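A reminder from the course coordinator: this example appears on the midterm review sheet, so study it carefully.

Given structure:
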């Protein structure tokens, strides 16, 4: 990919160079560039370079968009979300929690049940399952926003 001048092509070239067979053709690169152009360049570069450093094989467009969405949302991992919910319940308020954490807490009975449950192992299990679904839905929604051609600019 010599002579690359488009910064999006340059970023996609980093993905292409991850391919063990180096069979990432020009048409594939064009598809990646077009699909990823709605993403702010600075954000895309950060995510792609993180993927280049941590993956063995090139990511699909969907995987790149999912990683961008997760980076933007900054949602906690499931057990950290549970700890946040427990702490918020102990302090008497869930209002400052990320939306998926609030929804998962509500799904298991809210702060009262989190504070007073006699079977916290089962409650935590139900919370984690609910949180995974709400987290996945939030990421999916953000991916759709990112990949929408009519999307307004998303700040990096």
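Designed residues:
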């Amino acid at each position: 990919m010599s002579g690359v001048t488009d910064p999006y092509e340059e970023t996609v070239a980093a993905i292409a160079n991850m391919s063990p067979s180096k069979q990432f053709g020009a048409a594939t690169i064009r598809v990646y560039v077009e699909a990823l152009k709605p993403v702010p360049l600075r954000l895309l570069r950060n995510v792609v370079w993180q993927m280049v450093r941590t993956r063995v094989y090139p990511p699909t467009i969907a995987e790149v968009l999912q990683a961008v969405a997760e980076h933007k949302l900054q949602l906690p991992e499931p057990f950290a979300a549970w700890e946040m919910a427990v702490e918020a319940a102990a302090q008497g308020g869930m209002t400052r929690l990320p939306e998926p954490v609030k929804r998962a807490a509500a799904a298991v009975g809210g702060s009262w049940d989190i504070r007073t449950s006699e079977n916290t192992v089962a409650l935590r299990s139900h919370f984690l399952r609910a949180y995974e679904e709400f987290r996945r839905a939030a990421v999916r929604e953000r991916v759709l926003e990112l990949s929408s051609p009519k999307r307004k600019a998303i700040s990096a």
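The two ends are 27 Å apart (CA to CA). Residues 151-156 have pLDDT under 50 and may be disordered.
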